Amino acid sequence: MKRKAGRSADNVGTVFERRLIEAYIAENGRDPVTDEDLSTADLIELRTSRIVRPRPPTFTSIPSLLSVFQNEWDALALETYTLRQQLSQTRQELSTALYQHDAAVRVIARLSRERDEAHEALSRVSVHGRPVTNGDAMQVDSSGLSSHLIARVEATQEKLSKTRRKRPIPDGWVTPDALNSFSPIERSNTLYVDPRAFALNTRGDTALVGCKDGRLGVYSTSEKAIVQEMDTGTGSVTDVLWLGERAIASTSAGNVKIYENGTEVTSFSGHAGEVTALAIHPSGDILASVGVDKSYIFYDLTSNTIATRILTDAGKMRENLMISLANG
């Protein structure tokens, strides 16, 4: 605040801080400089432009400016170093990712090549035998059944066909109603914890029991106990049957094994996976198996060799196999 011009020139131009001068006038009513009477009406408000603050003292000399420039340069250099370090790390991660991608591409290319080679090899397999009537595509390996097996099949078929045409229904055969009324008359003790397959020997009083743990037991109905036990090896037993006094078993590991007097005499491993069923041709010279790999395999039991293999997409392979062998 500035005091108005009064009767004396000495009173002109005195500058006060408004808050302080108003408090002094309210308390004393006089001018603090001249000690004359003074009221707030005698005060004139001064209006000035915005005050520009001076630069900090550190920027007022060349050494201080050089120091500031040095600090700014150090900060910029540190930031550049950090960015370069992050760039180097990113490049390493990118290099690793590209290497892994290249390895994956190579593996995929190799698998694709192997798949194409397998398809090409499969397409070269020739087809033999009768036409398939159920609409399921079949592929038979080039070897086929040998001539002596074909002769045995045809001879057996002719023999069975003649007897079937002339054979009357025997008297005393069990009727369906009588069969439904059957009930167990005797039970054995628990033989195995988890049996998977069972076959009764019609020529004697023995039965085959196959288990999940790969054991194969011969149960005697007269002695009511397991009289012989064999180990099929890896995998569980999936199916069993008798061929005379020889026991035959298939496993989930894709093996078909033949035992005689408790000793393994023959083993086949033609399936790429679990064997689901076994069947014997009425001639007794041909054994057949079917597996989850959608293939039939016929075995020549006269020479203990694989006779032929058939690949098919049939959905009911087990039933078709049983019917084909039963019909000779």
Give the neighbour order of strands across the main sheet. Answer: 3-15-14-13-12
Terminus-to-terminus distance: 130 Å
> What does the average pLDDT come to?
78
Sum up the overall morphology in one term. elongated
Counted beta strands: 15
H/E topology pattern? EHEHEHHEEEEEEEEEEEEH
Radius of gyration: 53 Å
- What portion of residues belong to β-strands? 25-35%
Count of helices? 5
Q: Which key terms come to mind for this protein?
A:
328 residues; alpha+beta; 33% helix; 5-stranded antiparallel sheet; elongated; 4-stranded antiparallel sheet
How would you describe the overall organization of this protein?
This protein has 328 residues and is α+β, with helices and mostly antiparallel strands. The chain contains five helices and 15 strands. A five-stranded antiparallel β-sheet has the order 3-15-14-13-12, covered by helices on one side. It has a four-stranded antiparallel β-sheet with strand order 4-5-6-7, with no helix packed on it. Strand 5 (206-211) and strand 6 (215-220) form a beta hairpin. The longest helix is centred in the first third of the chain and has 62 residues, at 62-123.
